[in-house]
Amino acid sequence: MSIRKLLRVRSVAALSAVAATVLLLTACVGGAATAPDGAGTTTLHLVGFAVPKEANNAIQKKFAQTPEGKDVVWEESYGASGDQSRAVVNGLPADYVNFSLEGDVTRLVKAGLVDETWNSGPTKGIVSDSAVVIVVQKGNPLGIRDWSDLVKPGVKIVTPNPASSGSARWNILAAYQQVIANGGTEAEAREYLTKFFNHVAALPGSGRDATNAFLEGSANVLISYENEAILARQSGEDFDYILPDATIKIENPGAVLKNANPKANTYLDFVLSKAGQEEFVKKGFRPVIADTPVGEVAGANDPAKPFPVPPKLFTINDLGGWDEVNAKFFDEATGLVPQIQQQTGRSQ
Amino acid sequence: MRKGAAPQTATRWGLRVLVVGYLFLLVIWPVLLVARATFAHGLAPVINALRQPEVIFAFQLTLSAAFWAVVINTIFGVGISLLLVRYTFPGRRALNALVDLPLAVSPIVVGLSLVLVYSGRTGWLGGSLEQAGLQVIYAPPGIILATAFVSLPLVIREVIPVLQEIGTEQEQAARSLGASALQTFARITLPAIRWGLLYGVVLSLARSLGEFGAVKIVSGGVAMRTQTATLLVEERYQQFGIENSIIAYAAAFILALIAVIALVIVTAFRPDKGTPR
Amino acid sequence: MTQRAAIVEPPPLDSATAGAATNAGGRRLSRGRSATSLTAASGLGLGVALLWFSLLVLIPLTAVLVQASEGGWSAYWDSLRSPQTFAALRLTVGQAILVTVVNIFMGTTIAWVLVRDHFPGKRVLEVIIDIPLALPTIVGGLVLLSLYGPSSPLGVNWANTPIAVFLAFLFVTLPFIVRTVQPVLLELEPEVEEAAASLGATQFTIFRRVILPSLAPAIASGAALSFCRAISEYGSLVLLSGNLPYSTEVASVRILSYIEGDKLTEAAAVASILLIVALIVIVILDVISRRVARYA
Known about the structure:
The structure holds 3 protein chains of 3 kinds.
Chain A: H1 3-32, E1 42-49, H2 53-63, E2 72-79, H3 81-89, E3 96-98, H4 102-110, E4 126-136, E5 157-158, H5 169-181, H6 186-198, E6 200-202, H7 207-216, E7 221-225, H8 226-234, E8 240-242, E9 246-256, H9 263-271, H10 274-282, E10 312-314, H11 321-330, H12 336-344
Parallel strand pairs in A: 1-2, 1-3, 5-6, 5-7, 9-10
Antiparallel strand pairs in A: 3-9, 4-7, 4-8, 4-9
Chain B: H1 5-38, H2 43-50, H3 53-86, E1 87-88, H4 92-98, H5 101-104, H6 107-118, H7 126-131, H8 140-166, H9 169-176, H10 181-192, H11 194-210, H12 213-219, H13 229-237, H14 242-269
Helix pairs in contact in B: 1-14, 2-14, 3-8, 3-11, 3-13, 6-8, 6-12, 8-11, 8-12, 9-10, 11-14, 13-14
Chain C: H1 2-6, H2 15-22, E1 36-37, H3 40-69, H4 72-81, H5 83-116, H6 122-134, H7 137-148, H8 162-172, H9 174-187, H10 190-198, H11 203-232, H12 235-240, H13 251-260, H14 264-295
Helix pairs in contact in C: 3-14, 4-14, 5-8, 5-9, 5-11, 7-8, 9-11, 10-11, 11-14, 13-14
């Protein structure tokens, strides 16, 4: 290559390097910068888990129609709850967070980003509820009505793996605690859980894999959340779900960060108001505020009465709270579930 | 006439079938199936999917991170190659061996190692860097670091054999004629190694575009901020809905296409490896 | 005989180029005549290069070892021996060994066919073999899923089973032995083989007694790389294996779980195992390339 050509190549290279630097810097800066607040507009950052994205967007629209909310501009990020929580700890800007598990907010408390008193309000920090349900094939050919029917011959259960997915733990806890809620002893609950695992056909890593395994026929029963079942049916999936008499209440927390813009608190209040909760209801979540108007919810078993209250609805607090639950049930070394998994040799 | 000519042909065909069959079942057919699955609903949904802002952002981020990683690795790679081949110094052998380390280390370990050092809250260096205003982990610079790490040896390993082959006669001649080091490098060395450099850059680029595990750990995968193309594929594949599925396959298809093009470039322009020189 | 005649001149005597051909990509450096000691400028260059290398590679990897040792020996061994982690390590190493054995056989065969056989479309195979190397691992998982997962046209469904781990490892390690053996096969002198044939040796004996020993170092290098690559694999397993504890969870997934659970020390403990294996493999490669150089 002649020197002139080489120089030309090099200057082209240098120019493109400069151009790329500029691009990259703007990418870096653009990603991190918040929209400059114009006169009177406030920018709020919402970091949440993927499922209530539409609900939150609907609430934001309503919020914008209130006097406090009218000049608010949103920057949002949705993703897997644990990943999002870790991202906030590591510097993702956030004013309001809406996660799937309390532990994901606790992580922020430990990092000093959320005040310890975040869950001392009337709803204990929770902004939406759901419940663990049993999903069966359309028409319920196996005639499943309750947890006890799951350990009958021919039943193949699929549920996301509690070890790989934090949110999947609700399902296992429901299966265990329903025995106790019905008057059984811990020993009987453990026995049931062992039988349960003997019927588990697959423990895939994510909720979607579990649903796919169910839809493809690898299993005939899927343990899932009511709001996900409703949402799936709203999107056209065709199956039935059963709300057992005894099941666990799933609680999704929402919190405002310590250094957040004060408007974020106003938003949280709005989320907890009837207007806000209504939007959660439309997406299949159970409201946390009593007297929230519950209209027709498409996708629910009975759209007119979408959220029947099961006779024995227990919560994580009935089990001692997450810290105790994680230690007792899911600790690798001493937890009940890993022990049962080893026993039944069933981890798939 | 050689003994056993007939069995020789049989063996030859047997081996051919074995090899082609193996490659078909392991690589060819699966790749074709993915191509077919991508376009199962037609071309329009795929184009549509690729136009989504998250997808465009993810590819932009991937490309810019790969670009910088390749630039860094090329500059330092050529430098290290020259040092390793043309000079002796204590520890040369160790450095030569260590340069291969990134090829042997798991991407997850790479991600973990970078987090341990550059994390803003707990990292060895990250804290001070963040105070100086540079966030590495969970930000694009971290992605560039992770990508540079995993593709580090690729340019070096292509350039070193070429440097060895060309020897130093031309360079020494140039120096003796009064050329400066820079001139010698620009006019003699660089042109001589240009093919090795090209292969190294192309391989490095392909590797950088495709990095997944290390980037997953250091970037946090936040959409529209630190989510690269590979992370996008993972996220969308695990979500419900046809659109998400199409997005996952479309992005995967583009990545695969780039990889194959890179390979074809490197294989097609290289002197035929299959026949003896 | 035409194939034999196509093999050109005897390998060059220059040790550098012979080394370049046999040392799987420039791993062995030439000694002596063209290497000089450092000047001030190059010394500075070396310093800068070392600084970059340290900041990017050496320091972070050291941090892994340091973090792993936080908590002392007992904590270290406890992390490794916890049932789930131990199961993950056992699965990873076991499948990696299995895959390496398959690769030794198939890799050598593929290299043989590529070098010694000629048929239309052979160039295409060259590209195909490198696809696993260039393809992003997550896409590799998607690719394997399409043939061996739920919607497989073959009617099998190996997703979420240990077979998926085996397949994923097999896929990503495909090119290694092929690429280390190929250059050596190219450089083999045909005279020895022809002599053996004229003395009455069967093709198989020729292969076993003449060719294989020359290939041994290349196969060994490739096998080491293949093993190392397999135990490091992560991306292709995410979608394919389900990452089920005690069943399809591999070491890299275990490390990621620990990281996501904010348990960096345990993560570093498992990572240190992978790192140590990588270092051993690097040393093995270095040793092999030196021995090859000595006897080249």
